[in-house]
Amino acid sequence: MDDIRIDGLLHAAIVRSPHAHARIRAIDTRDALRVPGVVAALTARELRECAAGVPPLAPSATMRAYRHPAIIEGVARHVGEAAAVIVADDPYRAADGADALRITWEPRPAAGTVERATGAGAPRVFDDWPDNVAGLATSGLGDVARGFAESDVIVEAALDFPRVAGVPIEPRGVIAHPATADGLFTLWSSTQVPYAVRAAIARALGLAEARVRVLAPDVGGGFGIKGHAYAEEVLIAVAARRLGRPVKWIETRREHFLTAAPDRDQRHRARLGIRRDGMLTAIETRFTRDHGAYPTLGDVIGLNTINHLTGPYRVPHFAGECVNVVTHKTFMGAYRGAGRPEAAFVLDRLLDRAARQLGVDPADLRRRNLIRKEAMPYAPGHRYRDGVAITYDPADYVAGFDRALALVDYERWRVERDRRRGTIRPVGVGLSAYLEGTGIGPFEGADVRIDPDGTVFVAVGVASQGQAHETTLAQVCASELGVPLERIVVLGGDTTLIGFGHGTIASRVAANAGPAVARSAREVARRARLAAGEILECAPADVVLADGCAHVAGFPDRGIALGTLAARAPRSRALAAEGAPGLHACLFFHPETVTWAFGAHACVVEIDVETGVVRLVRYAAVHDCGRPLNPTVVEGQLHGGIVQGIGTALREEIVHDADGQLLTGTLMDYGLPLASDVPPLAVEPADHPSMINELGVKGVGESGIISPSAAIANAVEDALADRGVEITRVPLLPARVWESLRVARR
């Protein structure tokens, strides 16, 4: 974003609330306007269009209505909320102007924790709500009371999952131009969802969506935190229109920690029932999700956690309830995994404790309960958050699980664990298996066009943040058109290229845009055969498309280049009969529901009991992504997700004090994973085609991050179980592990 230069460009700095909850009494802009180069100092009074606010990404009928203003209109609800914007001819002068602005605040009591927000007499985030509960998310199957009554052993646990940040290499950024040469209001944004941003801008400015163009240029990482519209996009757009000049805002790293939406922050009270023979009878959890000040994603994350709670196992009875709570903290969004790592953590912590109580191998316990290949496709009996009854795609969970055990050398490390019991360097082995609903709709489309120079242009409604769309979607197109890969150009991240798009979120591009590209390219191929048959004087069915040419079957020298064919196609009588000229098609794919991917992770840790340091010794993963479009891309996605999961397990946590003040606002305080934390990753794909789409693909973008926290927590407890240590939360910082050992000794 920051590389984009536009004539007449102004730069914005945002003045933010230093309080988690406070009323603005007065704003004095005089000193700010005296700073050389400052063009404007704007507040809610001047930027009235900001009252339209930021629409929720996922409205829900079960959640209370709220309004998220793009700039504070009277009361700040979290530290970092925008109170004013300073616009100058230089970003440094804008920052100086922001420092010079004076705001008189009236601090109010803040609900900085779930306990405070749900306690008696709690400060309310929204004055028109009776309390701070935004709503409940519930789902289940069977009768959990009956399931626990049928069990021989019940294990219970209180488990916490931390608030974590996406921390992409490139922070957020916005450039708004009120009138580009094409006459459109144009906005560049470092976003995963250009069409959602377009809708928010059009709504705020009172424009038709067709009059707003949103571009997402090369984006340096997203990981879900850029997966919805933000207040800054609306704010900068309104400021640009008011000033009649283009305005740029680039997020600082401090602003990122303060204002970019984090995720997780769940607190579970869970239990699991099991018979003496090792068969599961019931699972139940009741948990809170701290949304921060605005429930942007509604009940989506809570439902994701509940719907993934049973994993790949046969569980006849389960129930989950998520209490969605608002607090005076930065509002939450979705970070890679979006509710699934929490489900895996709860499930696998309970399974390991059940195995320990029964005195059985935790691998044997899991294998005993895995859904069998012959039961596929398997319908557990409840519905996904899209309202469709869940049906797991055919796969071999047992084989995948056993392969993960082999990759990590499970039996050898179990022996080594026993040998090192009582030493200062014990080792432990941890396991986790998961399911992931991927590729949720509602749709994606693709516009495929062959140019007279032979280039094939593929326009899609999904924007890339490093997922290799330009390669994988080109491969899909090439396989349908018989065109060399280098002749295909994939274009995305521009709302004028194709009329509709949903976004690069929820592990959905390969499973949604992939089939859309295939269908559009297939239609272009059909049209090419019609036009070529007319020119080559043969039946369309006898036309072969290969190497960028159309030729008669059996006569490769009797053909025509696709570029030449594209130039002649507008005059084709055969295509005229089809109702439209040219070698072009734009079709959409609407999946009926998600496709279900499976994975299994296994790891080995070594612990220094004198310092609490956890060292990963081995890590292995198997993931069923259906038909991999590009195995190298799949492996890269898994590696990236696993490393981010390792970060959550060992280092990462956003911490606020009880008053909602951020304590981990720099990279000195927020611990990202280091190269030295990561052992060689043994990763293998499995190939069990999906039954939801014609390509047979399943999502993979979020899969790697689901199991690391669960597997590593299991491994640490496995190493220290003989010392009485119980792991109830991550990250497993050295001080936290050391303290667990101290408490267990005491």
- Sum up the overall morphology in one term: globular
- Regions with little confidence, pLDDT below 50 for 5+ residues: none
SSE class: alpha+beta
* Major sheet characteristics: 7 strands, mixed
How many DSSP-defined strands? 26
In whole angstroms, how far apart are the ends?
Answer: 54 Å
Strand fraction band? 15-25%
Mean pLDDT: 97
Number of helices: 19
Q: Provide the gyration radius in Å.
A: 28 Å
Can you list the strand order of the major beta sheet? 3-5-1-12-9-10-11
What share of residues is helical?
A: 25-40%
Question: What's the quick description here?
Answer:
With 746 residues, the protein is α+β, with helices and mostly antiparallel strands. The chain has 19 helices and 26 strands.
Report on this structure.
It is built from 19 helices and 26 strands. By secondary structure, the chain is an alpha+beta fold. Helix 13 runs parallel beside helix 14. The longest helix has 28 residues. The radius of gyration is 28 Å and the shape is globular. The chain starts with 9 loop residues before the first strand and ends with a helix.
